[in-house]
């Protein structure tokens, strides 16, 4: 009987250790799941909203800090300028870095609606749109595309209006209508 006491005590100690580790892991998972990251779709909207809170000088200074890799200074600047909380400022600067926004003055908003009838706007950067299905991958790279325009094209494609989506893609890039149709076919989910 005495020979079983030591192994039973070891077994109880191991069981207690496993129980404590399991509780610690479940607490970590619960605290990590408490604050899910913002979805990418809302990130572009957040960037637009954040950019609207900045004056032209603040906009220029903020993007200069982002370009220099000074994220903390950019968050501090946005925090001071916007009056938002620290976490909201961090999220806004992250969205502005992920979805660069041009400065729009107060009179720029009505002109944006008319852009659909005029010549497509050329941006100072090249936007890459990639679609793939199975082993087939297509890429469109253009300085006439951005998140907003590509989002509209994807919405048209998902709603079944593939011809309008292909036409919009050819209008905002330098690809043929045939290439645009092939690209749009890959967007269908």
Automatic annotation (TrEMBL):
Q: Which organism is it from?
A: Pseudarthrobacter quantipunctorum
Residue ranges of region Disordered?
A: 100-119
- Top-down, what is the taxonomic lineage of the species of origin? Bacteria, Bacillati, Actinomycetota, Actinomycetes, Micrococcales
Q: What is this protein called?
A: 50S ribosomal protein L7/L12
């Amino acid at each position: 009987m005495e020979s079983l006491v030591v192994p039973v005590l070891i077994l109880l100690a191991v069981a207690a250790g496993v129980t404590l580790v399991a509780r610690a892991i479940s607490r970590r998972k619960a605290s990590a799941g408490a604050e899910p990251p913002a979805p990418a779709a809302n990130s572009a909207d957040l960037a637009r909203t954040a950019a609207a809170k900045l004056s032209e000088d603040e906009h220029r200074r903020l993007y200069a800090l982002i370009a220099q890799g000074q994220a903390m200074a950019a968050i501090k600047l946005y925090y001071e300028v916007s009056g938002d909380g620290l976490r909201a400022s961090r999220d806004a600067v992250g969205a502005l870095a992920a979805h660069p926004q041009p400065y729009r003055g107060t009179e720029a908003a009505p002109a944006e609606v008319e852009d659909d009838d005029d010549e497509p706007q050329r941006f100072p950067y090249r936007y890459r749109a990639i679609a793939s299905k199975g082993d087939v991958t297509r890429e469109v790279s253009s300085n006439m595309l951005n998140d907003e325009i590509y989002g509209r094209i994807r919405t048209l494609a998902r709603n079944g209006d593939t011809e309008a989506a292909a036409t919009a893609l050819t209008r905002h890039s330098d690809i043929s209508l045939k290439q645009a149709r092939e690209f749009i076919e890959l967007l269908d989910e």
